[in-house]
Structure formats: structure tokens, C-alpha cells
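Researcher: Here's my situation. A collaborator sent me these components and asked whether they could plausibly form a single complex. I don't have experimental data yet, so a predicted model of the whole assembly would be a useful starting point for our discussion.
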Amino acid sequence: MRNIFIVCALLACNLFMNAQESEKYPLGDYTELTDTKPHDDAATWDKLGTPTQLSWGSTDVRYPKLSIPDVRKTNRWRTKAWKGERVNAQAVLWTKTGVKEAQVSVSDLRNGSHVIPASAISAHFVRYVMTDELNKDRKGGCGVRENKAEWDSSLVADVLDIVKVRDIQARATQPIWTQVRVPASAPAGTYKGILTVSGKDLESMELRIEVDVTNRVLPAPKEWAFHLDLWQNPYAVARYYQVPLWSEAHFEAMRPIMRMLADAGQKSITTSIMHKPWNGQTEDHFDSMVTRVKKIDGTWQYDYAVFDKWVEFMMNEIGIDQMISCYTMIPWKLSFDYYDEATNRVLFVDTKPGEAAYADYWGSFLKDFARHLKEKGWFEKTAISMDERPMEAMREAIKVIKQADPAFKITLAGNYHPEIQQDLYYLSIPYGHLFPADVKAERERKGQISTMYTCCAEAFPNTFTFSDPAEAAWTVLHALAAGYDGYLRWAVNSWTADPLRDSRFRTWAAGDTYSIYPGPRSSIRFERLVEGLQDCEKIRVLREEFEAKGAQGKLKRLNKAVAQCTPEGLAETQRSASEMVNELHSLLNNL
Amino acid sequence: MRNIFIVCALLACNLFMNAQESEKYPLGDYTELTDTKPHDDAATWDKLGTPTQLSWGSTDVRYPKLSIPDVRKTNRWRTKAWKGERVNAQAVLWTKTGVKEAQVSVSDLRNGSHVIPASAISAHFVRYVMTDELNKDRKGGCGVRENKAEWDSSLVADVLDIVKVRDIQARATQPIWTQVRVPASAPAGTYKGILTVSGKDLESMELRIEVDVTNRVLPAPKEWAFHLDLWQNPYAVARYYQVPLWSEAHFEAMRPIMRMLADAGQKSITTSIMHKPWNGQTEDHFDSMVTRVKKIDGTWQYDYAVFDKWVEFMMNEIGIDQMISCYTMIPWKLSFDYYDEATNRVLFVDTKPGEAAYADYWGSFLKDFARHLKEKGWFEKTAISMDERPMEAMREAIKVIKQADPAFKITLAGNYHPEIQQDLYYLSIPYGHLFPADVKAERERKGQISTMYTCCAEAFPNTFTFSDPAEAAWTVLHALAAGYDGYLRWAVNSWTADPLRDSRFRTWAAGDTYSIYPGPRSSIRFERLVEGLQDCEKIRVLREEFEAKGAQGKLKRLNKAVAQCTPEGLAETQRSASEMVNELHSLLNNL
């Protein structure tokens, strides 16, 4: 086993390796967990005339792994797209005999002499991950789930693999996620090409791709107005990739992951300014990115090497540079770390807002932090972030912040509180909660950001691994429809112990803690989220255009369709989230 | 209880407080553990004619607590003393009725118009501490003693209390340790005075003191030639006094303890340059007095705030300034601490001499440490200290030290190794091991220090709490007699969990880890050690004097007596250690 690995590493052939179940943190191929759910039996599979079949399917469906997929066979995918847009389709292959060394290739897409090159098109084997289910009352996914046996688990299609050649087992379905990144410079017109599936002892099968590029241009993700805030977890990356924290290898591993976020229009850098800002609730707890030393004379000394390196990396190498969120001054466990020079240990002060020790610990830090941030030119972008705590505690924390520097920006992810909302530069409130219209307008006027978040609490909409794929898009379209400035989710890569194979966690419904997989591998959830984010930006562009042109009819049609993206709209129109999302998507391409 | 304490603190009356058994770390009075050994019964006590009696006794005896002491009653203590010398006597009080609020006072000692003031005389109630015994084979006291029930325990007189007023129980013996510090300026002659014991409902009892001050002057302890090296443990002090490490309160607590050492001619400052240099073998482990930070770029950063404060305190406030011993580069557990900036944790490098990681960890530190020491003007006084390890490891460590700075001094407390002895500025070898005469002479010529040590290994001589008091003096007189430059003991205040009441420890025979008690309180062992140290210096002075004067007869008598301070001398002269020590002491006053 060790020899095989060494040889393969030398030959860079690990992608061809048989998956090793013994590998704890696979980066190449891997073996999925066993699908124990009822599925088509051998007799049903054996009735298939053509042993291996291929068709375009739908991006709304997580095709079961061991049953013949329910698709209306079609070999042409036709879609419209804006210049600069990413468009997705899902092909499905199913086989009663299995396919050895299956692989997918795509041709250039051609429109006369114009070309969308094959390099702008990607095809991913969709992989299956273990998921669970909503709480028994179907009202959400919060709460502890230590005993996995209590939850109905199943294998679902979600991971978009980066392994390019793999064996497909007999009597199995293999979805293939396909994405075309239309260059912003592509002239309008219809681009055509071919997706080919080949394999050992398999006659190659083809599907047609046709992308009608319209004349409109989707701005680059960095320009998107929608304030996206998916919290990053660098600590999970270090653990999964088994690299020293903040080493070059660590940044190397994070680079493609964080670029996926930048490509989704991410605005905020997640930083932790204390040990376990969320009490270590994720598989890999966050630690302090600031070194705090308590000197023997009782004074504090700070070092920002980790904070600076992470922020500089995100800003300069990744391009996420609008906001630095610093978690947190009011953690759930009010215990604050420092390296104690006297005892040569990391110790903790147990104190709470309102106490002198709290004001000393934070006041001293925030003054120095403000000085440092100003030196780096980051002060205006940085926000001291709080989690929901009792009002009195939040007020005391705000007092300490303002005392350190009245100009410090402050954020809260929590409930809407009229008492403190004016102090919050950035306020993200739960799905279903609303800002009073006058407050929202006033906040906008003052340049304050007002968003919504979802977490474990929502049965719908959500991005659990068992959630309907379209919910990811619907969520952000809803955020726009309901007048929020953006969307926050508390975890995008807080990986479970074995994230590629098992998305279940010791708390919350499966998939709650991440939608980007190691590799990095995207997911059906993440790509549908990006689709929604693109449509949000398209709505913004169209509104601007229609308003500028005075195209009231189109504006009205657009706004009416957008306004339906609410729970009430779903009920009223009797549409599913996927129908609503797809119709709106189509409208945005045809207005 | 709290109220009592507060009132007493306000009135500075805590010395009068009833001992509180619930007090974990008593600083005032306290209740001794129960003496469970056979002792004189009530009938025997009741036969006493005079209910409470007082006499001078012997400093060689640990008088049992619950039996009538075996003393030839005498009310006059007469002794010779050099100017500047401390002389000790032990009085014994025994009572069948008990004495409430017993206290001891001393008068000035008068010689015509010359006075040794009462302030130069101290009297201490001798307190009883739990001890155990030698190993079952009587060969020493090494090894683990987790199960106290396996060892024969008893209460022994050792602690010299600082509580001045206390109740003496009925049918009990209360020794009173008495010390006269003869001023260096006192004119020769016989000084006389009175020691008085009084108590509630007790007619005061008196004992006479007569000190014949000779014309010779004992140099101040700082000038003593004998190289005394008793390792200090600041961590034990912080724990017992419940004060933050390296705080002003901590130094306040250490000041009188360390002054006792300075007064004994202590030469070395014990410093720890890593976490647990001795694998945490004491109740309070040593931690690193150096802050080592591993930066995320892999470089090391050092801070010497603790080291500097401790060394400056010892040098400037205490006057111990000849040597700074830095423990250790080769600990028993080869695991080396640092604060890791990346993970915000104290981490450990597991590496051993000869490995690149070892050379990196130590080489980088030693270079910076040398720079720092030179800046402080301490480089010439500082020695990197090693414990006994395999030869190859010691050689590799020496190589790393020499590479960092060829002029670095190096010490070893361990066996004599001809292969490396020339590299060792300071080498302390076990009792009974000898330096070859030519090597010792060569080392002397080169200014290298060669001493001996005792630890748990010696059944005799030792300073366990059950050791004969005179052994403490005999040990250092032996060191001188056998041609060593001094004496090392690895612990002088590494206190047990409850050091005033129980000297037993989880390893080694009781008392191995300390001879100074919290308070600070001296001990019979410590005072007898100082007596030996004084006599060592007196021997040096007399030799110099006799050589200068050509007083060959006296020199010969002196050297003959000194030379007997060996195990062979004891056997040959058929004397006990106390007899030998006392005779030599007497000779030094009469030559």
C-alpha cells in the first residue's frame, strides 16, 4: 500500500489509483459509503436494452445512485447565457454493466469563427455523500445528533468531483455536472459543441451543448452588489490537508477554495480574534489569529502576524477585500485566551461585558488593534463582530468598542434589536425576520449593510445535503426580493471528520457546516447558490437598465417575478422553489 | 472564620489565632499532624514533680514530642564564637499541664559596656513534621512512594517556627531553638544574658546564655570560598503563598527565603530555560523563564522578561550573583516547549541531541541568549546546565552550545566523565565519587569549579527530615575534607503539598526536596548545614592564617581533624557524625 502510493506519487498517477478506504483524508479518488436504501433490483436493471445510456437530466434533481434515473432522454442541452455567466447542466449516465475508466471530455463550443474554448467548460462526476434528515418534527435541523442511528441516513448526490477518470460500478447511475463559463468577451450568438463520455470497452457516447450567448454582460463577481458572507474556516483546511497552520502549504491548499468564494462574489474575510469564538462548535475550532501576551508587569502585548498574513492573502491573492469580520467579543463561553509570560501557558480570563476585566482585556486590545489596522490601511474595512447575546451584554460590549475607538465598525449576526441597530454597521438577521422599512432605508442612507442569514433553523430554504438543490438559489433570490442587502451563512467549509464521504455532524442536519468539499470540490448546492447569486446581479443590472431606459413594462414584469420569491409567493403561485427559480432565471435571459 | 481572619489581619494578630486545620497553606500558626508513635504514658508524665520544666539540651537531638526528654538538666549554655558567626543551642521545655500562650524572650548579652543586642538573638519553637524512613534495604531514599502506608511514618522535630506565642499541650515536649548572631564588630570577651520562657499562669523560667567571642572574624557569607549550590524553586513559593508568578507579591514572598540562602553563602541562581527541565518531578514543576515564540514564518523570537526579573532580583536585592545556572539542555524527557504563533498554543518539539531539530531549537536560542547575556553583562556568569545523560547526547549538546558561542560556560551535575570534564566549567559529582587528583588540580588552575552532591541516594550523610541533624554539617565538612570546591543539593524549597505538616513526598525519603519551610521557617537541618558551612570557611581562614604564620603544628592538627571527615575517618575514629562535627567545631574555636 505504501509502495503503491509512492510509485503513484512519483508518476502523478494518484487520480488513477484505486480508492483506498484506509486513506483518512483523501485528496484523489475515494470510495463512497454504502447506499443502504431500497433501489432498483438486478432484474429491473437487467431489463435495460442498451447496457450503458446517457442523457441530459436536470440540475434540480439528486439522481439516486443505484436506481435507473427518471429522465426523459434528450441529447441536447440548450440554454441562454449572459456574457460572463456560468451556466450549469447535469448529464446522467446509467449502466447495468459498469464502465471501467470512464471519462468525460468536452469540445470547444463554436459559433462560426468564435469559440468558447473547451478549457472554459468543466465536467464533474457527481459523487454521493451520506446525509441525514430534518428534525423529527420537520421544523428544522438544529440540535445535537451524537447518536447517528437515531437519524434516517442515506447517500445523496452532491459532490462535484475533480477526479477525471474513474470506474463506474454496474447497475449504477453516474450524474455528470457540466458547467460552461461564458467568457465576458464572447460575441453574442449560439455556440455549439459536444460532451463525450468514453471508457474502456465502451463505445463513446455524445451529448450536444448549445449556448445562446445574449448581448448582456454579467459583471465580474467582485462587482456584484449582493453582500455575500460565507464564513471561511482555515483551521479545517489545515487539518484535512494535514499541513501546518499558516504555512505556505496551508495557503496553497486554501488558495483554490477561497478563489471559489471570490468567484461567488464573497465580500467578507472571516477572522477570529480569540480562542474558540463559537465555543469550538465545528469539527475544527477557530483559534485566535492574534497573539496576546500578558507580560509579567501586567501589560498586554499583541502580535498580528497570523491575522495579517491571512487578511493579506485574502485581499491580495484572492481578491476578497471589502470587509474584515473579527469574531468575537461576546462568545457563548465568556472565557478569553492569552499567552501568560509568567507561567509559559495559554490561560483564560473568565469575565463578562460590564466587568473591569472584560473592559481591560478588550479595551486594551481594541486600542492597539485600531492602531494596527490604521497602519495597514484596513481600519475602515474592519468590523468587530458579535453573536447574539443578551441586550445588556451587547450594549456593554459596544461601549467598550466605542471607548477604544468611536469609529470602529461593529457587526451582529443575530436578531433585530431596535435598541442597538443604529450602532451596527453590518446587521444580519434570521430568515423570516424583517427590518422595518424606515429603518432599512435609514441604514441604507448611512451606508450600513442589512442582510439575512439561514442556519440549522430553516427546514426551507436550506443547503443541507438533502435539501432540494434549487433552495440554494431561491435563498439568495429571496434575500434580494425581501429587500436585504445580502446573505450570510455561518459556515462554508467547516468540514466534518470525513467530509467527502459523510456530511453528518454531531450537531445539526447534515451539510449544515459546509458546501465546498476538500479538493476543492464544488457541490450541487454551491453551484446552485452561485446561480442564484448571478441572477441577483442580473436583476440589479436589468433594473438599472430598465429604469435608465424607462422600460416600465419590463421593469414591472421583472419586479413582479422577483417579488414572488417569498414563502407567500410560493404558496400563492403554487410553484416549487425550483420552478420559481427556473422561471425567474429564464425570464432574466429573455427580458 | 472569615470575619476572624479579617479582624486579625487588621490587628496584625494572626500569630495569635488558633491554628485552623482548614487552612491549606498556613503562614501563621498551624496544627501539627498526630504523632501515632508509642510515647510516655500519662502515668509517667504525672510523676513529674515540677509540672513544667526547662533546660538546655543538644542541637544534635530531635526531641520526641510526647515523651519526657532525655536531658541532663542545665540552665547555662556556654559557647565560643567567632565574630560574625551564628551559634546555635537548643533548649527544651516539657510540661505535664501544658502552657497557654507560651513565649520566649531573650535579653541583651552583655560584656561590661559591650552588648550583643537582643535583636541579634532569636528563639524558635521547634515544630514537628511528618517524616518517613529510608528504603527497606536501608541503602538510601530513592524511588517512588505513592503509597504512604508502606512506609513507617513518624513526627519529628525539624521546623523552626516563626510564631512567637503559642499554646503548648499537656504532656508534651517543646524544644526551643536559640541562635545568637555575633556581630562582626563585637569586641572579644564573654557576653552574658538570659532566655526567659513565660506563659499564662506560668511562673517565668530562665536559662543563661554565655558567648565567649574570640578574636577571630568570620567573613560575611558572600565572601565564603565554599561553592554552595542549593537549587531554588520560585514556582513552589508562588503556589504556597497563592500569589501570581513573578508578581511583586511573589518576589515579596521569596525575598526572606532567598536571603536565608544568601546568608548561607549561596553562589548560584537556579534558572529554568525550558518547560519541566526535570520532567516535573517536584510538587511544583519548573517552567521556562524564557518566552520562546515560533513565528509562522518558522523563525524564533525570544523574550527574557521573566529570566531577567528573577536574575536581577537575586543579584541586586538578594546578593546572590556569582553564577546563573540555566537548566537544561538535556532534560530527562526530550520534549521542548514553545508558544506556537500559528496555533495559539504551547507546543513541544520532540527531538534529541544530534538531530537537526535539536540543533535548531537550541542553536537558535543560545545565539540569541548569548547576545542578551552580553547585553546584560551576565555572559561570564552564566552556565548552560546539563543533567546526567548518555555520553553521546552530552557530547552533541556541548557541540551545539560551542557552536552557538565557544565561550559559553557549561555545567553538569552527574557522574565524572573524563571525556567531557574539560568542557565543564562547573562539574558536581556524586558523594563518594572522586576527581583524579591531577584533574582536580588542572581544573583549579583553569578556574573550573568541582563540587559534590548528595540526593536521595545517600543513607548517610543526608538531610532527610529523619536524618541526624549533624549530618547536614558533616556533609559540607566532608566536601571540604575530600577536596571538592563546594556542595550541590538539587532542592532547597521544592515544597511538598503540605510542607509545614508533612515532609513526605510521592518520591524519595521525606525531606529530600526542601530544608527551608514556608514562612520562611528555617529547620534544624538548614541551621546545622550553615554551621558546617561556617566551619568550612573557618577552616579556610585558619589554614591561611597558619600558613602565613608558619604555624605548622596548628596546621597539622587542623588538617588531621579535617581529613577525618570521611566515611573512613568515621570508621577509624569510631565517632558518630555529631561527635566528629562537634569536636571539629570546638577545635576551630580553640586553635
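Model: Some features of this prediction you could bring to your collaborator: The interface with chain A takes residues 244-247, 275, 287-288, 291, 293, 295-297, 303, 305-306, 309, 337, 339, 341-346 of chain B (CB under 8 Å). The longest strand of chain B covers residues 202-217.
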